[in-house]
Write a structure and sequence with these properties.
single chain; 482 residues; Rossmann fold; pyruvate-formate lyase- activating enzyme; seven-stranded mixed β-sheet; six-stranded parallel β-sheet; 16% strand; binds iron/sulfur cluster
Amino acid sequence: MKVTFLIPPVLDGTKNVDRCFGCNYSIYFLPLLPVLYAATVLKRTGDEVSILDFPGQKKTEEELRDFIRKDNSDIYAFYTVFLCQNTDLLARKMIRETRPGVKFIFCGPQPTFAPEVFLDKEDSFCARGEPEFIIKELITALKTGSGVDKIRGISHYSSGITHNPAADVIADLDSVPIPDRSILDHKPYFNPKLRSMPHTACLTSRGCFGRCWYCVPNSLSYARELEHKKEFHKKPAPRMHSARRVIEEFSDIARRGFRSVSVIDDEFLWDDKRTLEICRGIAPLGLEWSCLCRPEKINEEVASAMKSAGCAYVDMGTESFDEKVLAAIKKDISGEDTKRAVRILKKYKIEIELNVLLGATPMETEGTIRKTLAEVRRLNVDYALFSIANPFPGTDFYYAAKKEGWMFYGDYVPKDPAKNAIISYPHLSKEKLEKLLSYAYLSYYLNPRYLCKQLFKVRSLKDLTNKLSTAFNFFRKNFFEK
Ligand code: SF4
């Protein structure tokens, strides 16, 4: 079978979506790992498989139409997050008009959360939860005509919608093959905070032990979580690759000529033993890499090992420096945890991005926000990402916001959390939150102390171009686009 994983250009008049994380519009592009996993599994079974990333390649709607006219794929697969649902459905409509009779597979968090939205005809299937092995079984069934009724994790249409029972979460993550990065043209991908190129991304675990009530983890973890919650009403336990397997994947990445890696796990620093073993194993490869972690996981030994292994920056969710707000959102850290982690990371010269969330609980006030922003400025980290808390469908925050009437539009509507508020409390309105968000960015990034620090860090013309282009895109997106 010829299977094409399609990431269409924006077709619904909105913006490019970051499908790796799922809850944001994109400023830059990363390779879509969940699709790469599925494509790798299919390639190993002998299917002809390709991944076409139209937004990454800066290709237009007209080029998509042209591609469809000439293409002869049997199956088109989409990895869909909420914000690109309409685009993917419009792409299917376009393909149906030109190539009736082909089949469609939808996977990712949105087809897991609401499969019925995608199932209007017998030509379409949803692979819920973790998609790679489910898609493989589905395509085998389509090839052999053996029927899909027994495939767990599938929703399908046949004179009505049927949701087959859920598949188990993948117990042994090492059974998932190392993604074959040759399937995907990596030229469009970079991370402006990492200087070395070419660049790729990597996922060494799925899920997170945290209980933050607003949490939308990376989109693969979220699909897995949404599927599990339907039956068990709680998050599945996180699963991680063994240190040996992570070292193997980094070695494969280095062998293929990549020079930098974004590790996009919700949490990379699971336990010190694993982290130290991974760092020892990958240090000789000379790769530059980044990861996300919780501040309480940072200690001197871990930070020193990370630095020696090539870690250039870490991304930490601190969200607030008000203890009551942190308790209300179930963050299970204190402001002191973040300050201690920042001190240690600075000592080992690992750059830091702090994520700050405004309005994730009605405990938040203008006062708690201003206090948080002042603390972040005092810490003077390399990057600060400010967002307005988004009650994303499926999160505990969403259900509370809906019940208590905290959503300005009465329900969730797709908005850019780096710019627009959906939340509006009686004491902290949508408009006020949006003003505070602008203030957060302007007071942080136009601060002369910060600007000087950035200028001194520029290492090359390419580095400067990347920084300027990211800053330009960022300010255009947040302050000039509607
Ligand atoms: S620590 Fe991060 S990934 Fe884990 S639950 Fe909290 S927000 Fe989600």
